Amino acid sequence: MSDPKSIFLKDAAVTSADAPQRAFIRKALGGYYVNRDLQKARYRDWERARDAAAMAKWSAVNDLAANLEKFTANFERNGGKVHWARDAAEAREIILRLVRQAGAKSIVKSKCMTSEEIHLNDALEAEGFGVVESDLGEFIQQLRKEPPYHFVFPCMHVKREAISELFTQHLGTPPTDSPEELTMIARRHLRQMYVDADVGITGANFLVAETGQISITENEGNARLTAALPRVHIALSGIEKVVASLDDLSVLLPMLATAGAGQPMTCYNTFYSGPKRRDEPDGPEEFHLVLLDNSRTRILADPEQRDSLHCIRCGACLNVCPIFKNIGGLAYGTTYQGPIGSVITPHLRGLKQWNHLSGASSLCGACTDACPVRIDLHHHLLHNRRNAAKENPTWFDRIFHRSFLFVTSRPALFSLGGKAFRAFLPLLKKLPVPYMSAWLKTRDLPEAPAVSFRDQWKKGAGRG
Amino acid sequence: MRISLFVPCFVDQLTPRVGVAAAEVLTRLGHEVEFREAQTCCGQPSFNSGQWDVARPAAVRALEVFRGAEAVVGPSGSCVAMMRVFYPQLLEGTPHEAEARDLASRTFEFSEFLVRRLGVEDVGARFAKKVTYHDGCHALRELRLKEEPRRLLRAVKGLELVETEEAESCCGFGGLFSAKFPMISTAMVQVKGGALLRTGADYVVSSDPSCLLQIGGWLSREGKPVLPLHIAEVLARRD
Known about the structure:
The structure holds 2 protein chains of 2 kinds. Chain A is an alpha/beta fold. Among the domains of chain A are: about 55-295, 3-Layer(aba) Sandwich (Rossmann fold), CATH 3.40.50; about 400-460, no CATH class. Chain A has helices at about 5-15, 20-40, 45-60, 65-75, 90-100, 115, 120-125, 135-145, 160-170, 180-195, 220-230, 245-260, 295-300, 315-320, 320-325, 340-350, 350-355, 355-360, 365-370, 375-390, 395-410, 410-430, 435-440, 455-460; strands spanning about 80-85, 105-110, 130-135, 200, 205-210, 215-220, 230-240, 240-245, 270, 285-290. By secondary structure, chain B is of the alpha/beta class. Chain B has 2 domains: about 1-115, Rossmann fold (3-Layer(aba) Sandwich), CATH 3.40.50; about 130-235, Rossmann fold. Chain B is built from 13 helices and 8 strands. In chain B, strands 2-1-3-4 form a 4-stranded parallel β-sheet, sandwiched between helices. Chain B has a 4-stranded parallel β-sheet with strand order 6-5-7-8, with helices on both faces. The radius of gyration of chain B is 17 Å and the shape is globular.
C-alpha cells in the first residue's frame, strides 16, 4: 500500500510511539511559548493587532488581481522581470530556462518553501545544475537528503551530535558539540558558494504592490547574500503573498516574527527593489520574479476557505499543534506541515488522497487561536471532511452514520439499544468491534452502569 | 427557572451519574429541572466525520425536542458547542436556521450557566480533595470558558485546586478521532496524563465527560491513582 493515507498511518504510528523524540520536540517548542508570550505582552493589544493583520491580508487577497497588477507594474518599472506560472511544472520550466540563459555553473538558494512545493532542487539537479541551500537548517536538511521537518525550523528535530556527524561526513570537519562552532563550519563552507554562484534563488515573504518591492525576512543574512552577490537573482513566490502597501508590513513583519518564532522582529528584513542600477556598485544584473498559482486561484474561488490564502507561513499553528508535536513534521508527507498544511494540501494535491490529514485532528482549535492572521484553521478541517464525504463517500461511513441516525432518531430504540450495549459490553470488549477495539488497545472503558440516566430519571433521580 | 437538561447520549448510557449530579445541583439551587425523554444524540459524531447530511436531521430533531425550553443546560462543553456554534452553520440556508440560532442563544454549558447566567459561584459543595482542572477544547475555544469552572471549584469547601502544565493541551479524545487515529490520540493523552500526574492531584476534574472518558481510560489502563470526575459531580458533593 503506497497511497498517501497508508503511508501516513504507518509513519505516524512509528513517530507517535517514539517517546524520546516527542519529548525532544516538545522541549524545543516549550521555549517558544515563553518567548512568544513575552513578545506578545509588548503589544498594546495583541488581539487588535491580529485583527489588523487579518484585515491587511483579507483586503489584499480579496482584491488579488488588482494588487498583483499594481505590484507587477511597479516591479517591472523598477527593472525586474515578472514570469507567471500556472503550476509547478511551468514554474520549474521558467526557472530552468532562466538558469540556462544565465549559463549558470553554480546556484545558491535561500529558504523558500514555494521551491519545495514545486520540487525545484530535484529539477535543477536532474538538469545537471548544482544548487546549495544557504539557510543553515535547509543546508542541514539538504545534506541529510530529507525535506524540511517544520517549514520555519527545517531541522528542529535533529540533535547537535547528529549535525556534527553530518558535517564530519560531508565537509570533513572535526566533531564538535558547540552550536557556534557548527554554525561557523557551515558559514565558512557557504561563503565561497555565494562568491562562486552565478544565480541566486530566493523566496519572498511579501510582495508590496505600492512600491513593487519584495520583502524577505530572515535571521541569518544568507538571503541577502543569495540575492545580492550572484549575477542573476530569481525570486519565487506564490501569488497570495501580495500586500497593498508598506504600511501593512508595519504590523505583518513584527507579527510574523512574534507568532512564528517568539522574536520581536526577525533579524533581517530586506526590501528588494530591482536589479543593480547604473549608479550602484553592486547587486544582481538581472532580477526575475516567478509568480506561482498552483491551485491558489482555486482556493480563492472557495469563499469558505479563501482565508487560508492569508497565511504568512509563520509556523505558529505548527508550534502549538498537539498532532504536529506528537507525529512530527515528516510524517505529514507534505510540503506544508501542521494545521495549515492539512487545510491546504487537499487543494494543492487532491482531496481524495489528502483528506486523511483533515481527519487526523482532534479539532482542538489551538491552531486557530495561535494564527496571527485569524485563519479559521480547525473549522476548515471540518469543511474538508464534509467536502470529502460528499465527493468520495465510503460505504462504511455511510452505513455506520446512517445506522446511528436510525437508532438515535427513535428514543425507544436508542434506549433499548443502549441497554443491550451495556449488557453485552464485557463481551463486546473481547470482539473486534470497529472503533472500540482500537480504543481498547491503550485505554479502558468504564464499567457499564446497570441503569441509564433516562431510566434513573424516571425513578426520580436528580431531584433532591 | 425551568431548566431543560441536555444529557449527552454517552453520558446517558455510560456515565449517568454526571447527569444526575447536574440535575441535583440545579435542583438544590431552587430551579425546576426537566428532562425531555425524546432527546438522544446531538449529531456531533456524524458532523465531525463530514456526514453533514446525516447530522442535519439529528440537529433538526434536537430543535424539536428543546422547542420552547427557557434554558437548555448540558454538562458537556463539546455537545453544547455542537448546538451553540455548529447547529447554526450546519442548518445555514435551511428553513431551520432561525430556530437553530434561537436554540443556540438558549443553550448553556453547565458551569457557564451557573456562573454567567445564574451568577452563582458557591453552590454549597464540600469536597476535601486536591483536584486539577482539565480544559476541554470545545469549552475553552468554542465557548470561551476558562474562569467559570475554576471559580466554581475555588468556592467548594475543603477543595484544593492546583493548575497543571498542559492545562490547555488537548487530551486527544476528539470523538471518533480517538479510534480512527488511536496512536496519535494515545500519544496526546500520554502528554496530558503525564502532566496531570505531576500535579499530585487526587482527581482530574473537567466540564467535559468525553475528555474524562479518554483521560480516565488511559489513567485506568496505566494503573495510575488519579481519578476522573466531572465538575457537576464535585459540585454535588457535600462530604
